[in-house]
From TrEMBL:
Low complexity composition bias: residue spans: 35-49, 442-470
Protein name from the UniProt record: Alpha/beta fold hydrolase
Organism annotation: Microbispora bryophytorum subsp. camponoti
AB hydrolase-1 domain mapped to chain residues: 123-514
GO molecular function: hydrolase activity
TM ranges: 567-589, 596-618, 624-648, 660-677
Region of interest called Disordered, as start-end residue ranges on this chain: 24-49, 421-490
Pfam families in the record: Abhydrolase_1
UniProt KW keywords: Hydrolase, Membrane, Transmembrane, Transmembrane helix
Comp. bias intervals (Polar residues): 430-439
Signal peptide (UniProt feature, chain positions): none
C-alpha cells in the first residue's frame, strides 16, 4: 500500500528485530511482514548484494599490542551483504558460569571501511533487539549509515544465524490455536503451556541449556568479540532489547567502549509487562483518542470480531476471533510503524463505531510477526531477565495479549531469575535533551572536565578510556512509541554524565529505521560525541496525523491490494470514456454532431484524472488501507453526468447499437464506486 524503496525493504525485513513484545504482533498494512521478512536488507540505498568470501581467523584490524582474544571461525555470509564484508562465528561457552560448558557459535559480520578512512574512525558494533531477532540482514544498511567506519554486526546467541538456533514453532502453534477459539486468551493458557513445554523438552533433548541464553551472556559475547576481532575500542549501538546487553557490555568493558548509542531504550529497572498497558493508553492520549480507544476495547470485549487470515506456519486460511484486548495489542504493535502511526486515530475511531473490518490489514500482517523471532531465545531471555520482576496484575485494562502469553510460557518453563547487574545508567549529572518540539536544554557533559585546548574528539576518547569514567551516550526515542516510551528513557539518562537524549516527532519504535534525521544524529554523534549542535530538526514529523473524519473509511482499497481484479471496472470506464471523447471530437470536426458524446467522454476522463491527482497528493500510502479521500465521492458525480449524457445519446432516434456500451460501463462504474469502493 505504499511506494517501495530499498530503505523500506530494510524496515520491513528487520523491524521485528527491534520489537520488545511477547508475540511480535506487527501492525502493518503491507502485503509482507514488517518483522522478519525476506527483503534484501543488505542492499539498502543501491548497494549491490554480494555473497562475501569467508572471514579470516581474525577479520578486524588488530591494534598493536592487543592480545589475541577468544577464538573465531570463518563462515560464508548467510545473507546478501555488500562487498568488503566477511562473516564468521565467535566460539563462546554456552554458560560462562559452568566449567567446561559446551561451545556454541555466535554469528557476526564485519564490513570494512575503505583503507583510506578506516584508520581515522573507530568501528561501531550493532545488534538487533527482540530478544531473538536477526541482525545480519542489516549489514548493508548500516554500512551506508557509517561509510567511513568498520561496521560489525553481531547476532544474538541462539539467534537465526547462530548455532544452535533456538526456534520454537510449537509456541507459535499454541498462540494461533488460542486465537482461533472463542473466549479471552487469559482463560486459555493451558494449550500455550503444553506447547511451551513441548518446545522446552525438544531443546533440552538437543542439549541446549536455556540458562546460558540471557542478557549477561549476550553482553559477554559483545565484549569477547571486540577482543577476538582485535579492535582497541569501538562504539556500541543497540536498539530496543539490545540496549540492555550493550549497556552491560559498556560497563564491563569501559576501556574498549568509545561511546554508546541507544535507540528505543527500556531502562533496566522498568517493569515492562506491568507498565505496558498504561504506556499504550498514554500513547493514545498523545494522539488525542484515549476515550475512543477505551470505547473500542470495551465494545470488542463485549462482542469479539471474526477475521479470515492466513496461518503463519502453514499459510492456509485461518479464522481468528479477536476481542478488545487483542485489538489493543495489535494496535500497540502497529504504532511501531512510522507509516501506520498517522492512521491510528481514524482507525480507532472507526473500530469504536463498529467498523471492525478496518482492522483486517493489521490482522493479516500480525500473523507474519509470529515467524519473525527465534522464540526459544526470546523466552529464555524474558523468563530469566524480565518476567520475574513483574507482577502481571489482572486489573489493568486493556489486558495485552503479550503479557498473557509470556506469563504462561515462563510459568511453564520455570527458569531461575537472573541476578540484575548494574549498567551505565546510574544517577549523575544532567543531560542535553532535544525534544520533539525542536527545543533543546543544554546540560552538563563528561567532556566539560577535560583540559582546556583539547579537541572534542580527543576529550571524548580520553573520557571513554579513563578508568571509572562514563563514556558518552546518545539515547533516541520515538514520540509515539508505546513499547519503550520516550519519557522513561529521558528520565533514565537525565542524571548521567556525558549522556544526551533526543526525541523524534511522528515516529514510533526503532527510530533509526524510520527517521533520516535520527540517522544523521547518530552519525554526527559518532563523529564528535561531545558536540551538542543538532544535525537536523527532530521535531519534523514525517507524515501528518489523519484525524477522525479525515478519511472516508473503507476497507475496499485494501482488498484491491490483495486482489486487483475489481480494478477492471474503472479501467474499462476510463477506456470507454477516452474512446467516447475522441469519437465525439471527430464527429464535431466533421460536423456530424457528437457534442453530447464528447462531453460525456470528457466528464469520464476528468473524473479519472481528478481522482488520480487526489490520490497522488497522499503523503502516506498506508492511509489507503483504511480509507480514501472524501473528494472521490464528489468526483463520482462526474460519472453520473457522463452516464446520463451517454443514456441520452444511446436512446436518440437512429442511434447506433454501440452507443449502449458507454451506458453499461457508466452504470457498472457507478455501482462499483458507490456500492463497493466507498462503502
Amino acid at each position: 500500500m505504499r511506494a517501495e524503496t530499498a530503505r523500506a525493504d530494510v524496515v520491513r525485513a528487520v523491524r521485528s528485530g527491534t520489537a520488545w513484545s511477547g508475540t511480535a504482533w506487527s501492525g502493518t498494512v503491507r502485503g509482507e511482514t514488517a518483522r522478519g521478512g525476506t527483503a534484501q536488507a543488505g542492499t539498502a540505498r543501491g548497494a549491490e548484494p554480494e555473497m562475501a568470501a569467508p572471514a579470516s581467523a581474525v577479520p578486524g584490524r588488530r591494534a598493536a599490542g592487543v592480545a589475541a582474544g577468544p577464538p573465531v571461525e570463518e563462515h560464508p555470509c548467510p545473507v546478501a551483504v555488500p562487498s568488503g564484508t566477511t562473516c564468521g562465528y565467535l566460539l563462546a561457552p554456552e554458560r560462562r558460569d559452568v566449567p567446561n560448558s559446551r561451545t556454541i557459535k555466535v554469528g557476526y559480520a564485519v564490513h570494512r571501511a575503505p583503507q583510506a578512512s578506516a584508520q581515522a574512525a573507530d568501528p561501531v558494533v550493532y545488534m538487533s533487539g527482540g530478544p531473538g531477532s536477526a541482525s545480519l540482514q542489516l549489514t548493508g544498511f548500516l554500512s551506508q549509515m557509517f561509510p567511513g567506519r568498520d561496521v560489525v554486526v553481531l547476532e544474538q546467541r541462539g539467534g537465526r544465524y547462530s548455532e544452535p538456533r533456538l526456534s520454537c514453532p510449537e509456541i507459535v502453534r499454541g498462540v494461533v490455536d488460542t486465537l482461533s477459539t472463542p473466549g479471552p486468551t487469559s482463560a486459555e493458557t493451558a494449550p500455550l503451556a503444553r506447547q511451551a513445554l513441548s518446545c522446552q523438552s525438544r531443546l533440552e533433548g538437543e542439549h541446549v541449556d536455556l540458562r546460558g541464553y540471557r542478557t549477561a551472556e549476550i553482553a559477554s559475547d559483545i565484549v569477547d568479540l571486540r577482543a577476538a576481532l582485535g579492535y582497541q575500542r569501538w562504539y556500541l549501538f543497540g536498539v530496543s532489547y539490545s540496549t540492555r546487553p550493550m549497556l552491560l557490555a559498556a560497563a564491563r568493558d569501559p576501556l574498549g567502549t568509545r561511546g554508546v548509542v541507544l535507540d528505543s531504550l527500556l531502562p533496566a529497572g522498568a517493569r515492562w509487562y506491568d507498565e505496558s498497558s498504561a504506556a499504550l493508553t498514554a500513547t493514545m492520549t498523545k494522539l488525542g483518542i484515549a476515550a475512543r480507544f477505551d470505547a473500542m476495547v470495551k465494545a470488542l470485549n463485549a462482542h469479539p470480531a471474526t477475521y479470515e487470515t492466513r496461518d503463519p506456519l502453514t499459510r492456509r486460511r485461518l479464522t481468528v476471533q479477536l476481542n478488545g484486548d487483542d485489538a489493543a495489542t495489535i494496535l500497540g504493535e502497529a504504532l511501531h510503524e512510522t507509516d501506520v502511526i498517522p492512521i491510528v486515530p481514524a482507525l480507532v475511531d472507526g473500530l469504536a463505531s463498529g467498523r471492525t473490518e478496518l482492522l483486517q490489514p493489521l490482522v493479516d500482517a500480525a500473523g507474519d510477526g509470529l515467524t519473525s523471532h527465534e522464540w526459544g531465545l526470546y523466552y529464555a531471555v524474558q523468563c530469566q531477565d524480565q518476567t520475574p520482576y513483574n507482577s502481571f496484575p489482572d486489573s489493568r485494562s486493556p489486558r495485552l495479549f503479550t503479557g498473557v502469553v509470556d506469563a504462561a510460557v515462563c510459568d511453564a518453563w520455570d527458569l531461575p531469575a537472573a541476578r540484575p547487574e548494574p549498567d551505565l545508567l546510574a544517577p549523575g549529572a544532567s543531560v542535553t535533551t532535544a525534544s520533539s518540539d525542536g527545543t533543546s536544554i543544554e546540560g552538563a557533559s563528561s567532556q566539560e572536565a577535560t583540559s582546556e585546548g583539547a579537541t572534542s574528539e580527543e576529550a571524548a576518547s580520553e573520557g571513554a578510556s579513563s578508568e571509572g569514567a562514563t563514556p558518552p551516550i546518545l539515547v533516541l526515542g520515538g514520540q509515539y512509541d508505546p513499547t519503550t516510551p520516550p519519557e522513561d528513557a529521558r528520565q533514565a539518562v537525565s542524571a548521567v554524565p556525558g549522556a544526551r537524549f533526543a526525541e523524534f516527532a511522528g515516529v514510533g519504535h526503532a527510530v533509526f529505521l524510520s527517521s533520516a534525521c535520527s540517522r544523521q544524529t547518530i552519525a554526527a554523534f559518532l563523529d564528535d560525541p561531545a558536540a551538542t549542535a543538532r544535525a537536523c530538526d527532530p521535531g519534523a514529523a514525517p507524515y501528518p496525523i489523519v484525524r477522525p473524519g479525515g478519511l472516508l473509511l473503507t476497507s475496499s482499497a485494501y482488498r484491491l491490494s490483495q486482489s486487483p481484479i475489481p480494478l477492471g471496472v474503472p479501467a474499462a470506464f476510463l477506456l470507454v470514456s477516452v474512446v467516447q471523447l475522441v469519437a465525439g471530437l471527430i464527429s464535431l470536426l466533421r460536423r456530424r454532431g457528437g457534442g453530447l458524446s464528447a462531453i460525456a467522454g470528457l466528464a469520464g476522463v476528468a473524473l479519472c484524472a481528478l481522482s488520480a491527482l487526489s490520490l497522488s497528493a497522499i503523503q502516506d500510502w498506508t492511509t489507503l488501507a483504511i480509507g480514501v479521500p472524501h473528494a472521490l465521492a464528489w468526483y463520482g458525480l462526474l460519472a453520473l453526468v457522463s452516464t446520463g449524457l451517454s443514456i441520452v445519446e444511446a436512446f436518440r432516434l437512429n442511434a447506433a447499437a454501440a452507443r449502449i456500451v458507454p451506458v453499461l460501463t457508466g452504470l457498472a462504474f457507478l455501482a462499483w464506486l458507490y456500492g463497493w469502493l466507498l462503502t
